[in-house]
Amino acid sequence: MAQPNRNARQLKFLDIFTAMFFSLVLLFFLLVFTPFGDPLAYSGRQALLLSTSDPKQRHRFVSLVELGEHRQPIDPCPPDSVDHMPCEDPKRNSQLSRYMNFYRERHCPLPDEMPLCLIPPPLDYKIPIQWPESLHKVWHSNMPHNKIATRKGHQGWMKEEGPYFIFPGGGTMFPDGALPYIDKLRRFMPIKGGIIRTALDMGCGVASFGGSLLAEGILTLSFAPRDSHKAQIQFALERGIPAFVLMFGTRRLPFPAFAFDFIHCSRCLIPFAAYNATYFIEVDRLLRPGGFLVISGPPVQWPKKEREWEELQAVARALCYELIIVEGNTVIWKKPDRDPCLKPNEFRIGLCDESDDPNVAWYVNLKRCVTPSFINGGYAIGKIPGWPERLLRAPSRALIMNNGIDLFQADTRRWATRVAYYKNTLKVKLGTPAIRNVMDMNAFFGGFAAALETDPVWVMNVVPARKPLTLDIIYDRGLIGVYHDWCEPFSTYPRTYDLIHVASIDSLTRLPGSRNSSCSLVDLMAEIDRMLRPEGTAVIQDSPEVIKKVARIAHVLRWVTTINNKEPESHGRGKILVATKTFWHL
């Protein structure tokens, strides 16, 4: 009597197995041959992207994007990445050496170690307040970091007020505001009149000092590391003040020799005389002959800092700096306007030999030698034209290049014409309140920035570290910028630039004189996306073939693009892509 039941159970099992088999076949056809499978496949690809365990899979995806065979938008990064800077990652860098703050310098992951995803804005992000109102207030929701306001509000740094952070203009050494402090400095320095144009503010806080100097015609590049205050440079850039994330540690700062007319430290806590005066020597490399060095705060006549103060004065004497004034906790020195006068000293400071190029400063360790100018004071304040005359006059350092003067003049003319074309024909919003923070990723002589001088913008001129080192000429013009290798992320927070400009973008991924890429155009454009504000603009020039590839990548970055011809005066076959970064939320 049990046999029929056994047969029934076997038939039931076969029915279930057959149904499962045909269901799997049907599901396979649905996934492969209908749109139903696209979201699942897309999700799987994005999960693969966010994983860095298999570089080969990442490389395959990048190739698909460049070829236009992947057209789905790249997924957002996780919500906790809204302020992510890949090369200034505290978790990654905390394991490194503390010696001379090495762990707080740039330390970049390899491209294969970085997830390829789009940095999202904070939940309640708003389009930033426009310049010049932004100098005094920004949206709290764009950077909801209250630590500085809580700890430094009594010193006039910033305070929370309704939906805004308000900036009264103070600092640790000038809690009543930067303007009275600047008035004190002008008694001893030529603040007005165009003699001083380029300045460096070290350990700048939220950059109120640099922001206040703009009214004096002084262009200040403010820097500070990513530290316990977390977002001070982010606040500075949100305000529309030139700023940069940087640590004074074991390496030369990424600027050319004799770049700055004025270097300022207000309680920056840099131990200038330590390590055989290595930090003071680096400041000397950066300061133009005849330039001014101002240090406020410790150790200048500071209680319990008598030894450090004596050592600081001894270094300045050894380098023949002229003491202008010591008033309270502020000292002002003037650098000699001739080749270095080096006195016998306890710090074992010597002159650098001619084989040391003082303009090479990308991942170069600090040197313990003083840099001669080699041109008999030709870079000195008072011997170069004042501002604004220096903007359009070819500087003496252009003479070092073959046909340097002709190249400089041709570059200036070309960019004046091209910027007019951007504004009048391509309708790029340069010259309007919509654009304040601008970056030129391949600046050469700074002609693009020079053509924008009458606009309410500032320009971060970036000279690629593997190209001719023309950044010194940019500073001689009275403009500012940095060296950088675009195969690495830039040292800025997400969403800090309104417009990013790049000519010959493909060259930024290649070794000089080689057709081989050393990094991916996809990664480079994802980095542009990270730096660009929502509704910000990218203007990219290159050959038609490269622009076609750039447009494919722009699509997966969620940009809206147009491709345009170059200006009629240009005889090249290049194209110009103008893109807008869309405003999206998680």
Q: Could you explain how this protein is built, in words?
A:
The chain is of the alpha/beta class. Helix content is 29%, strand content 17%. 41% of the residues are buried. The termini are far apart. Helix 13 (471-476) links the parallel strand 14 (458-464) and strand 15 (481-484). Among the domains are: 167-370, Rossmann fold; 389-581, Vaccinia Virus protein VP39 (Rossmann fold), CATH 3.40.50.150. The protein has 15 helices and 19 strands. Helix 1 packs across helix 2 (37-50). The model is unreliable at 1-9 and 30-51 (pLDDT under 50).
Mean pLDDT: 89
How do the strands line up in the largest sheet?
Answer: 6-5-4-7-8-10-9
Outline type: globular
Give helix % range: 25-40%
CATH fold-level assignment of the domain at 167-370: Rossmann fold
Alpha-carbon distance between the two ends: 65 Å
- Let me know the CATH homologous superfamily of the domain at 167-370: Vaccinia Virus protein VP39
What is the SS-derived class? alpha/beta
Question: How much is the radius of gyration in Å?
Answer: 28 Å
Short overview:
The chain is of the alpha/beta class.
Keywords:
seven-stranded mixed beta sheet, methyltransferase, Rossmann fold, alpha/beta, 586 residues, globular, 19 strands
Task: Record the SSE blueprint.
Elements lengths: L2 H31 L3 H14 L4 H13 L22 H4 L43 E3 L7 H6 L6 E3 L2 E3 L11 H9 L11 E5 L5 H6 L5 E6 L7 H8 L3 E3 L14 E7 L7 H13 E10 L9 H13 L3 E6 L2 E5 L15 E2 L17 E2 L33 H21 L12 E4 L6 H4 L7 E7 L6 H6 L4 E4 L12 E7 L17 H11 E11 L1 H13 L2 E7 L9 E7 L5
Parallel strand pairs: 4-5, 4-7, 5-6, 7-8, 11-12, 13-14, 13-16, 14-15, 16-17
Antiparallel strand pairs: 1-3, 2-3, 8-10, 9-10, 17-19, 18-19
Helix pairs in contact: 1-2
